[in-house]
Structures are given as structure tokens and as C-alpha cells.
Amino acid sequence: MLLIFKTFFFLGCISFGGPAAHIGYFRSAFVEKRQWLSSEDYAQLIALSQFLPGPGSSQIGFAIGYQRAGVLGGICAFLGFTLPSILLMVMAASLSSAFLNNDIFEGIIHGLKLLAVVVVADATFSMYRNFCQTKLTTTLCVMTACFILLLPSVASQLISLTIAAIVGARWIPDKQSPTTPSSLPSHSNTSYKEWVAGGLFLSFFFILPWFGDLNVTLKVFSEFFQTGSLVFGGGHVVLPLLQSNLELQSGLDSVNSLQGQISSEQFLTGYATAQAVPGPMFTLATYLGYFLLPNTPILGALIATLAIFLPGFLLVIVFLGHWKTLANKPVLSSAIGGINASVVGLLLAALYQPVFVTAVEQTIDIVSIILGLFILRRFKCPILLLVIGFMLLGALLTIT
């Protein structure tokens, strides 16, 4: 448990760049370095996270901890990866947004965004070599990337993965070897843990809203749980849905109202801060929860954080074992081959938008990315050294 926690805690301290970058960090840490799972199993976790609502990269991290040490392992992975971001968001909420105007700080964040480009590019290239070895899989990858770039939306992602699954099931031969070990849980019957997780999800989603008006704490938990249950497509999608849910509270009385305690300026400052700190962007809920329970701000931050992450984790417990069971069937195994290729296309599209677009501002940024890729791939430089190097680079570019 301690190993899982400290490994994810380290990643939570350096994982800038959003879900696409997190996927790259996780692959480097758990597939290449520690070999906790194979490339194929990791790609299946990515595919599963695309189909389920919730924070995709955090679901992948939870699933990795879950397959290593059960539910407690998943909890340790979640706490380790999310704790640095939670602490920073609470600090930002308590100290206001003044530190965001510091030029050196903004320079450091810029350098870490450039590192995110390097990490995502490396992950994309590595996964392309593993899962796009035929003309058909390469075509699925390229067409997915083009489709997502032209029509960026959650629906486009789901359509691409669905089409890739159908094409894979029909035309990609099943090459799965029965002797290949898998680290993912696999079973055909529903276990008690899955029944409990499914029951909790349904209860919190359908029943809890009826009791939310009785207590403001329940209202906070319910609203953020509803948001986490409906967000498909990653951290950026949480912004409009959270904003909509908070605005819907305007009709409540002053005791239970969730609107009015957070101004538009605070809301957008929290969103900007969530992009500036490492870890999942869903910790925007931490920042907002701090202001929603002004008498107990720390409690509000923790409740909002738990509520927005919990639905995705419950659904991972419900579906992970059956996902692997279905994938072992020849037709579905072939479909997974198509999905894997499409996932590479999703990552390729994310490499450009939002990772590259938000990071690159001038020619020196391109040079830094090229050199970073060269150092990472040629010399296998540890991520920590690259983090320090790009932080110094960002600060230096700001000064000069």
C-alpha cells in the first residue's frame, strides 16, 4: 500500500499537462519502468476510461492500484495522485489568486507545459508502434485523429471508438495469445464488490438528490456527485457542467443555496488554478467546495473532491472485471484491437489540442520540445530531471 501511495504521490507532484500527459506519465511509470501491467492491458484501461464518465486519467490510476491491491490499493493510488493537487488548490483558495500574477511562477508553469508536450509525444509514438502495425490499424489511428481535430467533442470520441470497435471486430484478426499473462482482473460472474459499488452509484445518483435540500453538506455532495456521473471527455468538460449545476441552485433558500457563495471571478480563477497545478483538473471541485461551506471550508473542499471523483471509481469497480472478460472473446478481442488503434488517434489529437496549442508560443518552445524528446528517448533521462530542467527553462525564458 505504501509503495502504491508513494509512487502515485510522486506522479501527482509532477503530472502537469492534463489527462493526455498523465497517460504518458503512467505509461512510463507502470508499463515501461515497473512493468505492473502490459502495454495491451494499459491500452484497455485507456479504452475503458473513455467509455465511462469521470476523470479519465484518475480512473486509470485507480484501476492500476485496484488490480495491484484491491479496493484499498485503488484508494491509495487515488489519494497519492490527487493529494498534491488538493493541497495546492486549498492553498490557492485560502490565499486568493494573487500568486497567479507572479511572472516567475507563470514561467515555471510554461516550462512544465512544454514538458507535457514531450511526454505526450513520447507516449503517442510508443503506443503507435505497439498498436498500429498494419495498414488498417494505422488508418483507424489517422482517421480518428483527423475526425477529433475537425469535430472536437465527446460525441466524436465515442463515435470514433465505436466505429473502430466495429471495424476491428469485422476485419482485424484475433492475435491474442492464451499464454500471455494479464494483470487485470477477469471474471464472468458479478462479485459482491461490484454489487456494492453499483448499488452505491445508483443510490447516490437517483436517491440522494431527494434528500439534498435537508442539509447543505448533502447538497454539496449530491451536486458534485451528479457532475462526476455525467462528465464524459475529461477535465475541461467539467467546467460548463459544474457551472450549470451551481446556477441551478438559485431557486433555493439562502441556507441551502450553492449559488451566490462563488462569484464568476472565483469560479474562473479556480479553473485557471486547476490547469496550473499538477494532477487531475477535477480538483477544481476542491477549490469550489472550499467556498461552498464557508463555516467549514476544509470539509467543504474534501466533500466536493470526494463526490466528483467517486462515481468514476465506482464504475471502474463495476466494469473492470467484465471488460477484461469480454475482451478475451475472439470477436471482442479483435474489436479491442481497433479500439487500441483509435485510442492512439485520440492521444495524437490531444497532443495538438490542447497540449501543443496551449504550450507553444514561440520558436524557442519548439526547440525545447525537440531537445527534450531527444534527451528522453536517446538517453532515457529520468522524468524528475526533465521536470527540474523544464522548470528552470521556463523561469529563465521569463527573466530574459
TrEMBL record:
Subcellular localization(s) per the UniProt record: Cell membrane
Q: How does it sit in the membrane?
A: Multi-pass membrane protein
Q: Name one GO cellular component term.
A: plasma membrane
In terms of InterPro entries, this protein maps to: Chr_Tranpt_l_chain, Chromate_transpt
GO: which molecular function terms?
chromate transmembrane transporter activity
Q: Where is the signal peptide?
A: none
Instruction: Extract the Pfam families matched here.
Output: Chromate_transp
Which positions, given as ranges, span the membrane?
A: 7-25, 71-95, 107-128, 140-172, 192-212, 298-320, 332-353, 359-376, 383-399
Q: Which UniProt keywords apply?
A: Cell membrane, Membrane, Transmembrane, Transmembrane helix
Q: What is its main location?
A: membrane
What is stated as this protein's family in its record? Belongs to the chromate ion transporter (CHR) (TC 2.A.51) family.
Q: What is this protein called?
A: Chorismate-binding protein
Query: Whose protein is this, by species?
Result: Vibrio rumoiensis 1S-45
Q: What is the lineage of its organism?
A: Bacteria, Pseudomonadati, Pseudomonadota, Gammaproteobacteria, Vibrionales
